[in-house]
Automatic annotation (TrEMBL):
Gene Ontology molecular function: precorrin-8X methylmutase activity
Organism placement in taxonomy: Bacteria, Pseudomonadati, Pseudomonadota, Gammaproteobacteria, Chromatiales
Name of the molecule in the record: Precorrin-8X methylmutase
Family designation: Belongs to the CobH/CbiC family.
Keyword Isomerase annotated: yes
Keyword tags: Cobalamin biosynthesis, Isomerase, Plasmid
A Pfam family recorded for this sequence: CbiC
GO biological process assignments: cobalamin biosynthetic process
Pathway: Cofactor biosynthesis; adenosylcobalamin biosynthesis
All copies of domain Cobalamin biosynthesis precorrin-8X methylmutase CobH/CbiC, residue ranges: 20-217
SUPFAM superfamilies reported for this sequence: Precorrin-8X methylmutase CbiC/CobH
Amino acid sequence: MNSPAAPSVTAQVTRAGRAIEDESFAIIDAEAGPHPYDPGQWAVVRRMIHASADFDLNGLTAFHPRAVAAGLAALRRGGRLLVADVGMILAGLSPARLARFGLRPYQFIADPDVIAQAQAQGTTRAVQAMRKAQAMGLLDGAIIGIGNAPTALLEVLRLIAEEGVRPALIIGMPVGFVSAAESKAMLAEVTEVPWVLVQGRKGGATLVVAAIHALLALAAGPDEPVA
């Protein structure tokens, strides 16, 4: 008897898990109703709804016109960097999925030098973490995921405008009440760097992780299920 095919690294690894996930996506598709997204964008939004049970993301999620294509191109080239604002994003990502595309993750929010610089300069750790990533040459061509710290996103926007930094894609979804909505509104005005964002106060590391996993599944291509 032939052994069953090994599951994709972008899907659930057990038959029961895949069945539950498939049923969840079917429910989301049925309950979401009409939406403004193309198939690639909807794969991202649907995964975010799956992670949060928040149907408001159908409408609140916005995409730069080149966002999905740019993210997939970066992943398929392999060896890309992923720079996150907080460790929660890296903790939520599947090591197997990252390894599939050689995606190398970084975050610096708790580094002693980052904390010391933030204290000395009267800024946030998130600002200094992004400055450290830039000083290390990690931001150009990287996928940047921001789910918690609006000041991290504001610093990336400054680096784009003032220092010519060019990430491959920004997944800008900081959650909160101070500068969260405003930082994402500013990101929405950026034309030279592709982005995905959640408008308003909603966001969080969970949504960033879901968006990245959706892009990894899309990048795997037709031979691996988009799940």
